Amino acid sequence: GQQLNQSPQSMFIQEGEDVSMNCTSSSIFNTWLWYKQDPGEGPVLLIALYKAGELTSNGRLTAQFGTTRKDSFLNISASIPSDVGIYFCAGHPNAVNYRKLIWGLGTSLAVNP
Amino acid sequence: EAQVTQNPRYLITVTGKKLTVTCSQNMNHEYMSWYRQDPGLGLRQIYYSMNVEVTDKGDVPEGYKVSRKEKRNFPLILESPSPNQTSLYFCASGLSYNSPLHFGNGTRLTVT
């Protein structure tokens, strides 16, 4: 099935560093969602974006819906050890399959205390 | 507490022995879905349901069945499990198809 291009695939950073990851598509999307999966748990919604250009924050996390509607990014500021996990982007395409939620393969984040 | 509950959390079975993984949500959500997660392949949708008695195939439906007889429950049935169905399974629900999803804690299935 269709997938989003999520990068980087993995990151290993020092505690306190800022993190940036992004998600791109060759087609237009109507929504962008960012989820985090802790080890052994199900994904949990971090931020939902519904409008081109929208910039939304959730604590140290900030995400944006790209103005071309083909990309989104997630930033984490001042990382801490509990930020460890897999971050997934997902979205609904502006196409005949608009009901389908398309997923990226995830960015695995490791934080060195 | 609003939640999606999956059972069991862990299951080891043998090839061909029918099994059911249950999923229940207490948020009155119309939309429910099953995913499998495999290393390097991300989350792949198996089946989804837009409402009671309305189900449809996702990207990897082969070897699976579902039913939605009540709004809160969406069981996943493997009639004749095979080793390639060894995976981590997640049930999820949302108000509608385009609402953020709430996920269960997963069921790790091993088929020998």
Keywords:
heterodimer, A: 113 residues, mainly beta, 5-stranded antiparallel β-sheet, 11 strands, globular, B: mainly beta, 4-stranded antiparallel β-sheet, 0% helix
Oligomer: heterodimer
Task: Report, as a whole number of angstroms, the end-to-end distance of chain B.
Answer: 36 Å
How large, in whole angstroms, is the Cα Rg of chain A? Answer: 14 Å
Q: Major β-sheet of chain A, in short? A: 6 strands, mixed
Number of helices of chain B: 0
Low-confidence stretches of chain B: none
* Rg estimate of chain B, integer Å: 13 Å
Instruction: Write the H/E string of chain B, N to C.
Output: EEEEEEEEEEE
Number of strands of chain B: 11
Largest two-chain interface = A-B, 22 and 21 residues
Assign a percent range to the helix content of chain B: under 10%
Overall mean pLDDT score of chain A?
A: 95
Could you say which structural class the secondary elements and strand pairing of chain B correspond to?
mainly beta
If you had to describe this structure to a student in words, what would you say it looks like?
The complex is a heterodimer of chains A (113) and B (112). Helix content of chain A is 0%, strand content 54%. The radius of gyration of chain A is 14 Å and the shape is globular. Chain A has 113 residues and is mainly β. With 112 residues, chain B is mainly beta. In chain B, 0% of the residues lie in helices and 51% in strands. Chain B is built from no helices and 11 strands. Chain B has strands at 4-7, 10-13, 19-25, 31-38, 42-51, 54-57, 65-66, 76-78, 87-94, 102-103, 107-111. In chain B, strands 2, 4, 5, 6, 9, 10 and 11 form a 7-stranded mixed β-sheet that branches. In chain B, strand 5 and strand 6 (54-57) form a beta hairpin. The A-B interface holds A 1, 3, 30-31, 33, 40-45, 48, 88, 92, 98-101, 103-106 and B 4, 40-45, 50, 58-59, 90, 92, 97-98, 100-106.
Summarize the structure.
The complex is a heterodimer of chains A (113) and B (112). With 113 residues, chain A is mainly beta.
